Amino acid sequence: MRSQIEADVSHAIGPVPRRLFGSFVEHMGRAVHTGIHEPGHSTSDSRGFRGDVLDLVRELGPTVVRYPGGNFVSAYRWEDGVGAERPVRLDPAWHSLESNRFGLHEFAAWAAAADVEVMYAVNLGTRGIQEAAEVLEYCNHPGGTALSERRRATGADRPFGFRLWCLGNEMDGPWQVGHKTAGEYGRLAAETARVMRMIDPGIELIVAGSSGPEMPTFGEWERTVLKHTAGLVDHISLHAYYQEHDGDVDSYLASGAGLDAHIRAVADIIDEVGAGKIGISVDEWNVWDQRHWNEVEQPRLTAGGWRHHPKIIEDTYTITDAVVVGSLLGSLLRNVDRVTMANLAQLVNVIAPIRTEPGGPAWRQTTFHPFQLVSTFASGVSLRLTVGGDTLETARHGRVGIVDAAATIDETGYCSVFLTNRAATSATDLSLRIHGARLNLCGSWTVAPRSGQTRHTTNSAEEQPVRPVPLRDAAVTHEPEGTVITAILPPLSWTVLRLTPVVRDA
Ligand code: AHR
Question: Are the CB atoms for 116 and 62 separated by under 8 Å?
Fold first, then answer.
């Protein structure tokens, strides 16, 4: 297989927002309890925050974390997680018991410790305008009112100052507690947005888009909701989960093209409706074996009765999954002209790059690596690329290039190129020409099956054989108009090339 890629450092798609590297912690399964919070764990501090998890979170590098849901938020009472009284409640979304031992103040403190911005979701399922106004006042109003003084008395003298607020979650989904039609939700979101802006004009609001492109209401939902909320919200959410269907690895490896099309479809609706400057918040994206959840896990969970933090969707990821996560990150980078932020769903235990054993260690899943490398190296502007060469016909995403690519260059001239070889069984000869810059290769990292591994190889608490290794076959030549990099991309692989500007001799 062959692929030729052309870039020009003066042709940018747009700046790479740091918020592109967000993640998500929901009160679901073991994301919070025995995930980020486990009092008594050997690495936990006096607040119960697991130190080993915080270390891995800092290494992973998320910039924003969405909280507290997800489906959970649609029946949640935020007051239950504040103050001395912490009632145990039923969580209908995940058929679980919620202890509420971890709540708003704990999350604000954890986010500060993890050095991430908070994206807070309000309940527009069982609750509405009043609750949203109250939780915002509690969090962001300096003092002198009952709610803000309650926050101060609870230990947070200064306002939390959360800037990002989600107006509910996946309200189009029939599974959602308080599910609504687009018209019902659009009106509620608009009125909620109006009062929230009165209370704090500095916030940014995210209105809920469809929960997936396969929803029968996809498109109409966005049109209706945006007609109601245009001028009142800043972003519309897009949720996208991918999985391998019936062994169709070609389609799975082309998921990045699926996300490109999904983002473009939502962008077109924003333009068609004339909704103005609305960003797309891809605030749930990942790979997730939903068939296993629907057919096996969910019936088992419901039959098992109400339990505290049961194991839910702790998917153990393979090398293939890591390659797909890398390609989805590539799609986000290619679409920075419309995508203003994105959240890998989720962060710990629940379809997550970080797993924990209760009382035991925290460890890196295969998908940890592409996220960590992109959050570290993608900065500056995303470059417009022309990709030619061999192609692949896929059942789900049509004809796609054999290589999926994205690239960034920062103000100091460092360039990073992110490449997915979608050929499941063949290596691909890559020729990458970057016009307008003399660059040298200063690092490379590849995730691919290595000797003794298959595409199904996973990491575990005991051993982590899947990690990035340097790409062996890469070379750089300089031409008058730029730099040419040649490389052999292994079959089914995801690679980062890090390029440094050549320092001219004096
Ligand atoms: O991330 C898991 C779940 O997926 C979220 O709670 C929900 O919003 C989505 O359907």
Answer: yes
User: Looking at the structure, do residues 388 and 450 belong to the same domain, yes or no?
Assistant: yes
CA–centroid distance, 177 to ligand 1, in Å, is 12
Ligand 1 centroid – CA 195 distance (Å): 27
The answer to whether the beta carbons of residues 66 and 343 sit under 8 Å apart is: yes
- Which atom of ligand 1 lies nearest, measured to the CA of 241? 4
Q: Are 106 and 173 members of one domain?
A: yes
Listed in order, strand segments (DSSP E) in 16-161 are: 22-24, 64-67, 89-91, 96-98, 117-122
The alpha carbon of 34 and the centre of ligand 1 are apart by a number of angstroms equal to 19
Q: Is 284 a catalytic residue?
A: yes
For ligand 1, atom 3, name the residue with the nearest CA: 70
Q: Are strands 64-67 and 22-24 parallel, antiparallel or unpaired?
A: parallel
Nearest alpha carbon to residue 455 among 405, 495, 493: 493
Do 451 and 418 lie in a common domain? yes
Give the binding-site residues of ligand 1, using a 6 Å CB cut-off: 26, 28, 69-71, 169-170, 211, 284, 345-346
Taking the model in full, what pTM does it have? Answer: 0.97
- What's the number of domains the chain is made of? 2
In tens digits, the chain (506 residues) has pLDDT values of: 999 999 999 999 999 999 999 999 999 999 999 999 999 999 999 999 999 999 999 999 999 999 999 999 999 999 999 999 999 999 999 999 999 999 999 999 999 999 999 999 999 999 999 999 999 999 999 999 999 999 999 999 999 999 999 999 999 999 999 999 999 999 999 999 999 999 999 999 999 999 999 999 999 999 999 999 999 999 999 999 999 999 999 999 999 999 999 999 999 999 999 988 999 999 999 999 999 999 999 999 999 999 999 999 999 999 999 999 999 999 999 999 999 999 999 999 999 999 998 899 999 999 999 999 999 999 999 999 999 999 999 999 999 999 999 999 999 999 999 999 999 999 999 999 999 999 999 999 999 999 999 999 999 999 999 999 999 889 999 999 999 999 999 999 999 999 999 976 54
| Residue ranges making up the domain that contains 450 | 2-10+381-501
Same domain, 94 and 200: yes
Q: Does 425 lie in the same domain as 391? A: yes
**Known catalytic residue at 106:** no
The reply to whether 405 and 316 lie within a common domain is no
Confirm whether 288 is domain-assigned. yes
Q: Residue 127: inside a domain, yes or no? A: yes
Dump strand ranges (E) for 183-289: 204-207, 235-242, 279-287
Based on the domain organization, do 127 and 238 belong to the same domain? yes
Measured by CA distance, the residue closest to atom 8 of ligand 1 is 70
Residue 248 lies in a domain: yes
Distance CA 320, CA 448 (A): 8
